[in-house]
Amino acid sequence: MTKPLRILLLEDSESDAKLIQHELERLGTIAETKRVVSESAFRLAVAEFAPDVVLSDHSLSSFDAPAALTILRSQRPTTPFIIVTGSLKIDNAIACIRAGAEDVILKENLWRLAASVTTALSARRPLEKLTSRQLEVLALVTRGKRTRDIAKHLNVSVKTVESHRGEIMKRLEIHDVVSLVHFAMRVGLVTPVQ
């Protein structure tokens, strides 16, 4: 039997949350869902519930998707973040994608949600092969940091950084730094320069 997905739902409307959960069930997604409505509850849930994916409304009364995405990237950088909202200006949608959100789905198009979750999880699956230290090195390499600077930042030798980088590329089956940067941008570990 497949383990249920842990879905963290940042949604202040109980009826919308039920609609999202119903649509996921209707589309065959087996999930354990936790709903939160505040920043403090979100922080706690990210740490303790350890979601496989986060679904977030774009803006709540005192908290919004960009702030939630920043928290998620600092605590669980490999967890996909999908915005599910009633409406969103195109500029805001583009900004969210550039900041690392996997997708933006309008609530009128919830039929797209299961496929979006599946795609997001598949894109990040290779990251499961990496240790937390390798994820740190990957993020620093793809931000353009030099090996010597990474070594100094992590308080390790240059040789250790080179070893980590080689192992990252081997585990991800990526053979050059440019492709590594593209991959890191695709999964939201780094954002494009604006």
Report on this model:
With 194 residues, the chain is of the alpha/beta class. It has two domains: 121 residues, 3-Layer(aba) Sandwich (Rossmann fold); 57 residues, Winged helix-like DNA-binding domain superfamily/Winged helix DNA-binding domain (Arc Repressor Mutant, subunit A, Orthogonal Bundle). Helices cover 51% and strands 13% of the residues. It has nine helices and five strands; from the N terminus they run βαβαβαβαβααααα. A five-stranded parallel sheet has the order 2-1-3-4-5, with helices on both faces. Helix 1 links the parallel strand 1 and strand 2. Helix 6 packs across helix 8 and helix 7 packs across helix 8. The longest helix is centred in the last third of the chain and has 15 residues. The protein is elongated and about 55 Å long. The mean pLDDT is 86.
Gist of the model:
The chain has nine helices and five strands. The protein is of the alpha/beta class and 194 residues long.
Uncertain stretches: none
Class computed from helices, strands and strand pairing: alpha/beta
Shape: elongated
CATH topology term of the largest domain: Rossmann fold
Number of domains: 2
CATH C-level class of the largest domain is: Alpha Beta
N- to C-terminal separation? 44 Å
Number of alpha- plus pi-helical segments? 9
What's the number of extended β-strand segments? Answer: 5
* CATH architecture label of the largest domain: 3-Layer(aba) Sandwich
Radius of gyration, taken over Cα atoms and rounded to an integer in Å: 18 Å
The whole-number mean of residue pLDDT values reads 86
Strand content: 5-15%
**Strand/helix succession:** EHEHEHEHEHHHHH
Helical content, roughly?
40-55%
The CATH homologous superfamily of the largest domain corresponds to Response regulator
Cross-sheet strand order for the largest sheet: 2-1-3-4-5
Oligomeric category: single chain
